[in-house]
Write a structure and sequence with these properties.
Largest sheet of chain A: 8 strands, parallel
CATH class of chain A: Alpha Beta
Structural class of chain A: alpha/beta
Oligomer: homodimer
Largest interface: A-B, 54 and 53 residues
CATH topology of chain A: TIM Barrel
CATH architecture of chain A: Alpha-Beta Barrel
Number of helices of chain A: 13
Radius of gyration of chain A: 19 Å
CATH superfamily of chain A: Aldolase class I
């Protein structure tokens, strides 16, 4: 019927993605409270902060304090985001994060020019010094990622052949640096994907690189997040980035729309109900989602935290 | 790759479903305004009111005035909901509605007992007098529907065999009354469906009744609405009930959760982006969705109305 994986890894990005998006200042202690809550849900990977300039992202000014403050749970990998060597070294200096490098590309030439003032070609060439930076800092590189892999607000649709071409270039770079890329993250950065384009792009990549572990980073801006994740599951994709309660999004139009990542507990709910293992305690995750709403002080887009789980209804029915 | 239909019919239920759910009174003129707005979007079927006791549903006290007030657009079928002969005759008396009967069943024995104080068996037997009522009023019956087809808050999971069994009984009743049932509506009344159960149930029904036109009525309470619709598209389902802006739902937990139907414009967006014809002008539909938010006076769950369409971004890019 479909090529569902038996189990999926859900990579939680709520604390980083969500708090970065929020306008009001969030006390450090409350950020830590959410991370500690998420640590107890069974999630195995949590992105907690980004090490960026506080001028660009004021909400991340307390990144080091947040990392120092949470209580690591054994078996959970805590990660951070950075955009340059300074950020990388800040992440390493904490001594508490799982710091890994990646070969990061962007499928959209125009997006790249806008944000990094580089062409695709220049961006590919820049990888040599970035990889050298990782090596100099003793950071392993086993991952590649392609942003805007399904479309771009500035360039429009992205062809499958461009993605395959980028993959080829990425693997060429990896080979030159003797890196073994095991995971490719395809990011729907600007929410252009539909279930059909997920099938198209993932299918093409999987056909060419059958042993590559594909990971999807999905946004829910146009309401396609869960449907896109489902299309990924049908294609056997077993790794997804997600944000608890849909943090980073907001149901108010004036607040920029529901721009967040696909919602973690809605994704976990779908997997559980379809017999796909996540290792996550959905009730505990819903508690974290409610905590996230309480912390940001406004409703968040997640649905299952409002609609309730079916497992709880089944228990109630069985007990009646 | 998948058995997508070339075109789908979207049956708008926002005015009925949405206004019924809202707590505050909505002026008749504003209800009419939304119906008139929806009439210009290309939607071919709009459910405008329900003829129920104003004691039970005070917001529908002006049903006749609403029906008298809107401006019918040729080619659009306007429908109403009723639960008994009195309601049916009120609908007929308006002279402005497309009044059609159906053989309505509920898959959940417990739901039926709670709401209608009947067993499944009694409910099947009751169809004789209901069909007689339709015939006496000159109302055609070409449709059957099964509520709670994917699960029930009071009974739990519903087996595929129960659905097939109900289908058999329904077609038996139809044969006895010389009715030609062309459409079967499967309703996920309490939002238990996942894409997998959509595939399971629709697949089983389609295999047994390959010529039957299946229609899906989906709720988004647990965030699965669009993914479930996608699973329906993969199974070739070409008819969906939906509510503009996700009317009937609400992003506030305290407001009962996002309990509405799947959102019309998000569904139309997905279809359009996947090359499936809907006949609907998405920009006009988004205008209707914004009007719906303005009328109810609080945010509604729809995403594309906040995130914007890709067609508009493509035009902007092409013009740049």
């Amino acid at each position: 019927m479909a090529d569902f994986p038996k189990a999926v890894r859900v990579n939680e990005e709520g604390p980083r993605e969500g708090f970065q998006f929020e306008k009001g200042p969030i006390p450090t202690a409350r950020k830590i409270q959410l991370i500690d809550s998420l640590s107890k849900t069974g999630l195995k990977k949590i992105q907690v902060v980004s090490f960026v300039s506080p001028k660009a992202v004021p909400s991340m000014i307390d990144a080091e304090e947040v990392v120092k403050g949470f209580t690591p749970v054994p078996g959970v990998s805590y990660t951070g985001l950075w955009l340059n060597e300074k950020g990388l070294q800040r992440a390493l200096a904490t001594g508490r994060l799982d710091v890994r490098g990646s070969i990061s590309q962007t499928a959209s030439e125009k997006f790249l020019q806008r944000n990094q003032k580089r062409t695709l070609e220049e961006n590919l060439k820049a990888q040599d010094s970035i990889i050298a930076m990782f090596k100099a800092n003793g950071v392993p590189v086993e991952r590649a990622s392609i942003m805007a892999a399904f479309g771009c607000n500035f360039e429009g649709d992205i062809s499958t052949s461009r993605i395959l071409n980028l993959c080829e270039r990425i693997f060429g770079i990896a080979a030159r640096h003797e890196l073994n890329i095991k995971v490719l993250s395809l990011a729907d950065t600007m929410a252009w994907a539909t279930p059909l384009s997920i099938r198209r792009v993932v299918g093409a990549v999987r056909e060419k690189y059958p042993n590559l572990d594909i990971s999807l980073h999905l946004h829910d801006t146009r309401g396609m997040g869960i449907a896109n994740a489902y299309a990924g599951l049908e294609m056997g994709v077993a790794s997804y980035d997600a944000a608890v309660a849909g943090l980073g999004g907001c149901p108010f139009a004036g607040h920029g729309g529901a721009a967040g990542n696909v919602c973690t507990e809605d994704l976990v709910f779908m997997c559980q109900e379809m017999g796909i293992e996540t290792g996550v305690d959905l009730d505990a995750l819903i508690e974290s989602a409610r905590l996230a709403e309480d912390i940001v002080g406004h409703p968040l887009p997640g649905s299952v935290m409002k609609g309730g789980t079916l497992a709880n209804l089944r228990s109630k029915i069985a007990a009646a």
